[in-house]
Structures are given as C-alpha cells and as structure tokens.
Amino acid sequence: MIHKKRMTKRIRIGTRSSTLALWQTNLIKKMILQSFPDIQVSLIQIKTEGDRDQVSSLTKVGGQGIFTKAIERSLIENKIDLAVHSLKDLPTQMPDSLALSAIPERGVIYDVFIGSTETNFLKVKQGATIASGSIRRRAQLKALRPDLNFVDLRGNIETRLKKLQQNQYDGIIMAEVAISRLGLDHVKYYRFSIDEMLPAVGQGAIGVQSRIQDHYLEPVLNSLNNPDTYACVNAERSFLRRLDSGCQFPVAATAVIKDNDLRLHGLVANKSGKQVLRESLSGKVDSSEVIGKQLADKLINLGALDLMKEG
Predict the structure, then answer these.
(1) Staple 192 to which of 3, 91, 197, 263, CB 3.0 to 4.6 Å?
(2) Which pLDDT tens digit goes with each residue over 181-205?
(3) Is 66 exposed, middle or buried (CB count within 10 Å of its CB: 0-12, 13-18, 19+)?
(4) Residues 2 and 96 grouped into a single domain
(5) Which residues contact 73 (CB under 8 A, 6 or more apart)?
(6) How far apart are CA 204 and CA 182, in angstroms?
(7) Pairing between β-strand 10-15 and β-strand 82-86 as defined by DSSP bridges
(8) Is residue 237 part of a domain?
C-alpha cells in the first residue's frame, strides 16, 4: 500500500544530460503523464564516465557501460526510480537487482553519412577521411570502401557536427535517429541500407530500467512498453549476450517483425573489415530470445569468435 501511494506521488527519472538524452527522457515523462497525470515526474541529470571524458577512444575509457553505469548505480542506491538509456549503450549483462522493464516504440534504425561536401558516401573521393567512434561502423565501412581513411570520433551530436563544419573530416557517421529526434532538418545525409551497414544492437530504441523489486511501477512500465519493439531488441540483445561482446568488437544485429514472424539479421567482422560473417534467422515473435542465441551459435560455428579476436 505504501508503494502504491508513492507511485501516485512521484517518479524520479535518471538520465544523462546531453541534448539527445534529455529529449528521450522527456518523451518518457510525457508518456507517463499521458497515462498517469497525477504522478509528479522529475528528471535527475547524472554525469557518466563517458560524459566526463569525451576525447579518449571508447575502448580506452572502458567500452560498453561508460554511459550507463553511473545511472544504474543511482537506481540501485534508490536515488532515482527509473533510468532511461539509449538502448545501444546498455550492456546485455546488468546488475542482478535491475531489469530492462520497458522499451517504447522504436525510432529509425539506420546509420547515415554526413559529408562536408559530398553527400553520397559511395561517391566520396578516394582517400577521404571519415570519422566514427564505432568499431562496428568502421569495420563495415572498410568493407564497403577500403580506400578511405577512418579515424576516431567522440563528443555529443552538436560537437560532432561542429567538427565536420570546421572541415576536420570529409565526413562523419551517425545514427539517423539522433538527427530526427533533435529536429536537425537542415542536415543532409546518405542513409545506409542494412545490407550496406547493419545497425547496432538496440539502435533507435530507448530503454527504461527499474529495480526488480519495485512491482508497484508495473502499471507505469506496461504503459511505456511496445511489445514488438521489445521482442526485436530482446532478440538482438540475446544475440550479443551469447557472443559476450561489447563495443570493442564489430558486432551488429537488427530484428524486424512481419506477420508474427521475427527475422533477425546478425553480423560479426574483424576490425579491418576484410572478413565479415553475416547470417539471418526467423522464428515466432515469442521466441525472440531463442532466435538471438541460435543465430549467434550459427555464426560461432562459422568462426565468429576467432574473427572477433583478429585486428
């Protein structure tokens, strides 16, 4: 009974302080208030390790989890009631006391190329310098255009675009969802098909994390969750978990649903992009986790684990 009274009183949501993170968290706040207008929802901005160091390579500052651990710690310590993450940042292995409890309807999943002069990635001049902080993206780009020069890129969306405008690079790679959510309609880009570049696990999705023991929040969490999106992301995260990989290796996966059939596309490459393994697997939506594991096993049998160890 105490829990129910607390639910109707307030919910504290933990989030990063970047423009995109706040946009996503405000969306969650809006969705909660639409269903539960009497709840007081407040946003608690939390600085993560990845926010403190926006210069070093992601692999050097700790890889996956650098944008989520501080927020998870606040959730465990009861300083917040819910945590909101860009789901591609959230490791598949979470603290035992926490759960990925809701995933709203997904945004666009694609990666895009933004050029300083040339807007079509396939027409970029030979030897051009392309910036991306993602090993997954760079490996697939090298497979597409081995003639290009690829360099690391860190910073928030605004910083990345500013560096491009200053002609530090010939182009940068970003998630299209960041552009659409921030309303950057003036930005012209080339959208990669999933055949050209398979997106990251959870790309375009927002994850809402809660404490497992907080059953009183179930009505709120159920109102936020989109079952199809949850199933797709669950398959992708199951695939990644089975491979036991974070962002230090070129791994990608995207699931789509059509007529109660879930089709999962998965990819593993070496960092040079010279070897790429790619397979797909379909099954019933309610078997999403099994599909992820089976597709990972399929790639493991083709040598995925050895490939991930290569430079």
Answers:
(1) 197
(2) 999 989 999 999 999 999 999 999 9
(3) buried
(4) yes
(5) none
(6) 13
(7) parallel
(8) yes
Report the DSSP pairing between strands 82-86 and 251-258. unpaired
Q: Please give the structure tokens belonging to residue 115.
A: 């050029």
Structurally, the chain folds into a number of domains equal to: 3
Q: Extract the runs of DSSP E, i.e. beta strands, from the chain.
A: 10-15, 40-45, 82-86, 98-102, 111-115, 129-131, 149-151, 171-175, 190-191, 206-211, 251-258, 261-269, 276-284
Q: Is 279 exposed, middle or buried (0-12, 13-18, 19+ CB in 10 A)?
A: middle
Using alpha carbons, list the distances in angstroms from residue 176 to 109, 134, 162, 293. 7, 14, 17, 28
Residue 257: give the domain boundaries.
226-311
pTM of the model: 0.91
Domain presence at residue 213: yes
Catalytic residue annotation? 88-89, 136-137, 154, 160, 247
Summarised one tens digit per residue, pLDDT across range 98-134 is 999 999 999 999 999 999 999 999 999 999 999 998 9
